[in-house]
Design a protein that fits this description.
globular, three-stranded mixed β-sheet, alpha/beta, 404 residues, 15 helices, 13 strands
Length: 404
């Protein structure tokens, strides 16, 4: 069999399971209303949780950065790519996390995926055991696979199972690795309990705060601020392409950990640094996140989350035969679990026909039988936007019941 025949057979198998994915062309910038494939849609699928991607001050800062710094950085950070803008962002983030991590220092990466690969592979050597949360993001799963360490998975949010695994470990170094906010379920990891176990068993806690950064905490500093955690055992990964509205990522940890990453993290050493214009704009983004605008948009998120949850729970109660479920999630990620792959894609198509974009999420992103609409809210969504979504879902639910 030729390679092309082999790949076509695989593509046919993907299609037979209603798992085919396709690209959509955005014809305008990210916002609650975006033109996609030439048609304006009300969007409930972006990770731009504070609406900063479309904020005029960010665009102006990006343009100012380009005028000052030009285009790309030209080289890896250790060659010539580390600009004063990169350093200013790292210094700001070091200050942000100083109350939570003694002797805190931050180091930047081009993407959250790269940051997770870097920290887990650099720290996960042959003397280490990694304790990986069952529902961790793909980047953390891939990082654990690439690390030289032994890997033990523990069930989702199961502190008892993790305790038993830690107690049985004979590794010199133990790394507990978890998402802070689980990207497909919207729930929070039990970080206080995880940190208590790290303290008890001389372990370190790596927290991927991709979906908490900017959203959680009084000033938007994420899950550590939300829970009020402080420990030198904390290693935080933050993403700057979601709530921060731009691009990039960082690791904040004890200065010794960060110095080791600078020396040993291949994703840092061998990748061209992010464009300095982006770093320049990130300084404005960070100011907005911790300032009055960020506070107002986080407050709006909380209000829209409550409105959406109340509406979805009432919808589910009116249509019990459909078997839809809404997990407990206190974040902008609100998954409506439908079940089957074909069913969720039909529902997503019905919403799109009504002018709303809410993607269907299928295996392998989620477990078989739990295909869902991943509804995400933005700090610039209005009450009318959420009402429009709920009304469209009501019409779709009624149509499904009539067709059954």
């Amino acid at each position: 069999m030729s390679l092309l025949d082999h790949l076509q057979a695989k593509l046919n198998a993907i299609g037979a399971q209603s798992l085919t994915r396709s690209l959509r062309r955005a014809d305008s910038g990210t916002s609650p209303r975006q033109t996609v494939n030439g048609r304006e849609l009300l969007m409930f699928c972006s990770n731009d949780y504070l609406g900063l991607a479309a904020e005029p001050a960010i665009a102006e800062a990006l343009a100012d950065g380009a005028r000052r710094w030009g285009g790309g950085s030209g080289a890896s950070p250790l060659v010539s790519g580390h600009s004063a803008a990169h350093e200013a962002v790292a210094e700001t983030l070091s200050r942000w996390y100083a109350p939570h991590i003694p002797d805190a220092r931050a180091i930047g990466f081009c993407t959250g995926y790269m940051a997770n690969l870097a920290v887990v592979t650099a720290l996960g050597d042959e003397h280490t055991e990694i304790f990986s949360e069952q529902l961790n993001h793909a980047s953390l799963i891939d990082a654990a696979r690439l690390a030289k360490a032994r890997v033990t998975r523990f069930p989702h949010a199961d502190l008892s199972a993790l305790r038993a695994a830690l107690a049985a470990s004979t590794a010199q170094v133990r790394l507990i690795v978890t998402d802070a906010v689980f990207s497909m379920d919207g729930d929070l990891a039990p970080l206080p309990g995880l940190l208590a176990l790290a303290e008890e068993f001389d372990a370190w806690l790596i927290v991927d705060d991709a979906h908490g950064f900017g959203v959680l905490g009084k000033t938007g500093r994420g899950s550590l601020e939300h829970f009020g955690l402080t420990s030198e055992r904390l290693i935080l990964v933050g993403t700057l392409g979601k709530a921060a509205g731009l691009a990039g990522a960082f690791v904040a940890a004890h200065a010794t950990v960060v110095e080791y990453l600078l020396q040993a993290a291949r994703n840092f050493i061998f990748s061209t640094a992010s464009p300095p214009a982006v770093e320049h704009a990130l300084l404005t983004s960070l100011e907005l996140i911790e300032g009055p605008l960020g506070a107002a948009r986080r407050a709006n998120l909380v209000a829209r989350q409550a409105q959406l949850r109340d509406g979805l729970l009432a919808l589910i109660a009116r249509h019990p035969a459909l078997g839809w479920r809404l997990p407990d999630a206190a974040t902008p990620i609100q998954p409506l679990i439908v079940g089957g792959n074909a069913e969720v894609m039909a529902l997503a198509a019905a919403l799109e026909a009504a002018g709303l974009r809410v993607p269907g999420i299928r295996p392998p992103t989620v477990a078989a039988g739990t295909a869902r609409l991943r509804i995400t809210l933005c700090g610039t969504h209005t009450a009318a936007d959420v009402d429009a979504l709920l009304m469209a879902l009501e019409r779709a639910a009624a149509a499904q019941e009539m067709a059954a």
